[in-house]
Design brief:
Length: 170
């Protein structure tokens, strides 16, 4: 009895620990089966078939001879000697010396205002120790700009002001 009891236990132990292997293969699908397609897929497939047919039609069409373009010859131009009128030379318009002096004074006043404004803005910064250092820096910039303007600018009246503004904005 004891032997049969042990056999039953061993058999029960073996059967309870055994497991079946899971199926790894997918169920077979009928080769004629097509899953239902959405409207977008259907329209896409129709468009592809339509363009495929158009391409075949384009490739199978009979060849058309190209017409050769006729060459257009340029007309020969005749040159006539015309008398050239002498151009009238206009005398330069001289401005009143008083107006020129007023412009010069206005320009110098604007330059001095720019220098003063620059020194006021830089007063709290550690760039300059005193206002005298700032004025000296601005005077050097003014001298540099005057030499640049004398060497190459056309409009000397505004270019000096523009040069000073650019130097002080750096």
């Amino acid at each position: 009895m004891q032997m049969s009891f042990i056999l039953v236990l061993i058999l029960l132990f073996l059967v309870s620990c055994s497991s079946s292997t899971p199926k790894t293969s997918l169920p077979k699908v009928d080769p004629l089966y097509r899953p239902p397609e959405s409207r977008e897929e259907y329209l896409r497939r129709l468009a592809i078939e339509r363009y495929r047919a158009l391409r075949l039609e384009y490739l199978n069409r009979p060849a058309i001879k190209k017409r050769s373009q006729s060459k257009v010859l340029s007309k020969k131009t005749e040159f006539f000697d015309y008398q050239v009128k002498p151009q009238e030379v206009q005398a330069p318009i001289l401005e009143d010396p008083a107006v020129l002096q007023k412009r010069r004074e206005d320009r110098e006043a604007e330059i001095m205002q720019n220098i003063d404004l620059y020194c006021i803005k830089k007063q709290d910064s550690a760039e300059f120790n005193s206002t005298a250092d700032c004025k000296e820096f601005c005077t050097n910039a003014l001298l540099d700009c005057e030499s640049e303007v004398e060497n190459g600018f056309e409009r000397k009246d505004r270019s000096l002001v523009i040069c000073i503004k650019n130097r002080l904005s750096r």
